[in-house]
Amino acid sequence: MALPTNHSLLLPALLKGSKTSINPSFTISPKSPLTISETFSRLKKQRKVGFIPYITAGDPDLCTTEKALRLLSSCGADLIEVGLPYPDPILDGPVIQASTIRALTNGVNFQAIISMLGKVVPELSCPIILFSYYNQIMKINQESFMSALNYGGIQGLIVPDLPFEDIGSLKKRANKKNIDLVLLAAPTTSNYRLKAIVDASDGFLYLVSTNGVTGSRSNLNSQVQFRLEELKKETSKPIAVGFGISKPEHVKQLSIWGANGVIVGSAIVKLLGESKSSEEGLRLVETFTKSLTSALP
């Protein structure tokens, strides 16, 4: 299914921040050949660990984001997480906070991001997951937000500040559009609560490696190994680990501990957004990405 050339005409409700639903005939865009679940099934059969990079949409600009998505896909990303810029990213560390400020300062908005994704996603070999704070969803409304994600070919959604007790309505609307709502858990999450989160999470479970915000760290939290071992006894659902993963040694260790996927964000965002030029940033990201994927089985 080919997308119309003028994307901006298809998302007027989002462009104005309206509460009006989008015409559903304009909301479906070609997606990755594989779903998130199918991707992890493939990785399991191949005895591989998934590489999941994170980038902030619009940092340093949307053209570079588009190129970065193609680059990461060609370098072996199994899933790609795209962050929606937000002025108060409470769970993000200084690197991603700075990247969102740069993107917002440049005038990047949700409509432009979705239009860009609608263009590039059909060319990628891996599913896209959108990382969005809940207030961004409520500014539009849940139904229109999910329709927009469908338009952009997005297969998954992570909402880090949404309390688990409040996921019902959002999960229902996401699943109706064939979008996975991926939930987060921390090493300190109680066993009772963790079981409920695992059962409710779509596609895979996002295991946060440490309490606190995102950002590169020198060493991995040893609690992650214990939590992975415990989870593996209770569920066959894939588990991807994120927050603080920034070195080939980290991804190798996580694969030894039994993670099904590794999520690398701040280290990539820093290279892409803080380089002297977009071209230099993309070159550095390519080299770094290859060093990470070569450390994985």
Distinctive features:
eight-stranded parallel beta barrel, 297 residues, 13 helices, TIM Barrel, alpha/beta
How is this structure best described in words?
By secondary structure, the chain is an alpha/beta fold. The chain has a single domain, classed as Aldolase class I (TIM Barrel), CATH 3.20.20. It is built from 13 helices and 8 strands. It has helices at 12-15, 36-46, 62-74, 94-105, 110-120, 134-140, 142-151, 168-176, 191-200, 223-234, 248-257, 266-274, 278-293, and strands at 50-56, 80-83, 128-131, 156-158, 180-185, 205-208, 239-242, 261-264. An 8-stranded parallel beta barrel has the order 1-2-3-4-5-6-7-8, surrounded by 8 helices. Helix 3 packs parallel to helix 5 (110-120), helix 3 packs parallel to helix 13 and helix 4 packs across helix 12 (266-274). The model is unreliable at 1-9, 12-27 and 212-217 (pLDDT under 50).
What's the rounded overall pLDDT mean?
A: 88
Percent of residues in beta strands: 5-15%
- The number of E-state strands comes to 8
The oligomerization state is single chain
Which structural class do you get from the secondary structure elements?
A: alpha/beta
Subunit structure: Tetramer of two alpha and two beta chains.
Pfam families: Trp_syntA
GO cellular component, one term: cytosol
Family: Belongs to the TrpA family.
